[in-house]
Structure formats: structure tokens, C-alpha cells
Amino acid sequence: QVQLVESGGGLVQAGGSLRLSCVASGTIDSLNAIGWYRQAPGKQRELVAIISFDGRRTYADSVKGRLTISRDRAKNTAYLEMNSLKPEDTAVYYCNAKVILPPPLADREYEYWGQGTQVTVSS
Questions:
Q1: How far apart are CA 104 and CA 88, in angstroms?
Q2: Residue 114: which of 94, 99, 90 has the closest Cα?
Q3: Which of 75, 84, 93, 117 yields a CA-CA distance of 20 to 30 A from 4?
Q4: Could you report the per-residue pLDDT of 37-65, keeping only the tens digit for each?
Q5: Residues 122, 63: contact at Cβ < 8 Å?
């Protein structure tokens, strides 16, 4: 079983910064990708940022230049540095990981979600 534990959410004023962390634990053969999605009230869950096994980063257009994703491969941990935050960044942020499990389950990729952490940006 794989678990994702997020931390670092909170309340911040517009223009401020936060840092989210996500630790993937369990028996993982390969962590193919890890990142964050977010869901604001009344809206669909959307991709924020994700980093692949080889370090390729993908960002939502709305966060480019303000949010930076990084990972510590040895610790199966990802970080999201959030700067110049805006009220529209307010949402629950969910960690997402795509992993390969050890045999005999290594035939496909599995996807896991964290429990979510609230980020609130006041104007």
C-alpha cells in the first residue's frame, strides 16, 4: 500500500508564500511522477504542477512563474514552492503520484492521492 502525506498548507495574504510537501511512503518500485492538483469550491479538480521521473516539469498556465515544483528522489518527496500567491489560488491541494509497484504488481502504473491540504489566500 502506498500513502501520500501532504503538509504545509495554511492561510496567507495575497503576495505571500507557502511551501507544500508530499511524502510518498510504502513499497514503491518506481515513482514515475509526483505533483499537485487543486480543487476550489464549485470547480473541477485541476492540475497545478507535476514532475516526472526524469525531472520534466509541467505547470498549469495560471501558476507559471509563481510556483515551482521539485523533488527529492531519495526521500520520495515532492515540494511545491508557492510565491506571489493570489486569492484565486485558494483551494484544497491534493498530492498525486503515479507509481510502479514491485512484482507481481509491476505490470502497470498505479495512481494514488493524498488527503488534501487547504491553501487560503486572503485579499
A1: 44
A2: 94
A3: 84
A4: 999 999 999 999 999 999 999 999 999 99
A5: no
